[in-house]
Amino acid sequence: MAVLVTSLCPLLSSSVLNLCHAAKIRTVIDFITSDPEELVQKIQLSYKDILSIRRSLIDKFSIFPQNAESLHLELLEMLSILDTGSKKLNNFLNGGIYSGEVTEIHGSAGSGKTQFCFSLVSKLIVEGKNSAIYLDTNNNFDGKRIEEIALRNTNNDRAVLQNLHLIKVKNIYDIYELFEFMDFIKEEIFKKENVFFHRLKLLVIDSITPLLSPLFGGKYLDGPALMNNVAQQFKVLTSQHMISILVCNNTVNDKDFAIKPALGHNWKYIPSISLSISKLSSGNHEMSTLKSCRNGLFPQVLFHITKAGVTD
Questions:
Q1: Average pLDDT for residues 286-291, to the nearest whole number?
Q2: pLDDT tens for residues 184-195?
Q3: Is the Cβ–Cβ distance between 86 and 57 less than 8 Å?
Q4: CA-to-CA distance for 233 and 176, rounded, in angstroms?
Q5: Which runs of consecutive H residues, i.e. helices, occur in 34-174?
Q6: Ranges of CATH 3.40.50.300 domains, the chain
């Protein structure tokens, strides 16, 4: 907070400042939060002059007020809802995958988690407006497959090839690499020099399980603390930068042999939305909601995964 100086207010003379310092009132916040009646005794000014100084300091240092409508419009400008490629899925998710949220999609091997991620990324390529980062922990990334999905969803092949630069891929193999790269993302956004990071709306982690499961296997003594750090890093990217984080997770059986997401009790509080995906037959899939921060989601929805990605 700013230090009291004579230039802040005509009534703050050198003698008044000396009396303020003697009373251990050195900053603007010290003066504003002090009882005016006590200040009258300490710095030997009239009650009226004390209030005049307070009003002058508040006018100089208070934040310019914003009404609720302007804040709401600002939020709407930052908000993005990512198209899944399926009208049924979009309706199921109240529009699609929201920016500013951590969305978990969990399922067994071959259930369609990675193909769902590919389809979401391909939509960004077709639209050509926003960018995405794909963190690959299992060497599952397939650029040709993403290009195929994008080409099957547009007649403008040239635009697809031009927009492939909107997707960046990085292999991540342990938790510390994840922390380092998320710090890098925040630094690039803060610099405001790279258009890619200015347009960044989606961070895919496929999958989070290999990174976090070792935290509870004895390899790391500070496993719970590292999990909390992951939650804090996710919160910064989602709430401050309105990025959508989509994480894939495996499934395990609990003591009653019911299927649930991996990574245990601590993890379940991190995603805003937890979605379960399962494969019913060739090309036919089902998605259900395990956890949601939004009301009105249907219990489950059926959709297809074809050569064109996620469809109805």
A1: 90
A2: 999 999 888 899
A3: no
A4: 12
A5: 36-43, 47-61, 68-78, 87-92, 113-127, 143-151, 157-163
A6: 75-311
pLDDT in tens, 64-113: 666 777 766 766 667 788 999 999 999 999 889 999 999 999 999 999 99
- Give long-range contacts, CB 8 A cutoff, 24+ apart: 88-94: 88/301, 88/302, 88/303, 88/312, 89/287, 89/301, 89/303, 89/310, 91/298, 91/301, 92/287, 92/297, 92/298, 92/301, 93/273, 93/297, 94/294, 94/296, 94/297
296 pLDDT above the threshold of 80: no
Q: What is the pTM of this model?
A: 0.75
Q: Tokens at residue 16, please?
A: 């008044």
Please identify, in words, the CATH class of the domain defined by 75-311. Answer: alpha beta
Retrieve residue 149's tokens: 């999905």
Q: What is the pLDDT of residues 87-96, one digit of tens each?
A: 999 999 988 9
The fold adopted by the segment(s) 14-61 is DNA polymerase; domain 1 (1.10.150)
* Residue 279 C-beta-side C-alpha neighbours within 13 Å: 16
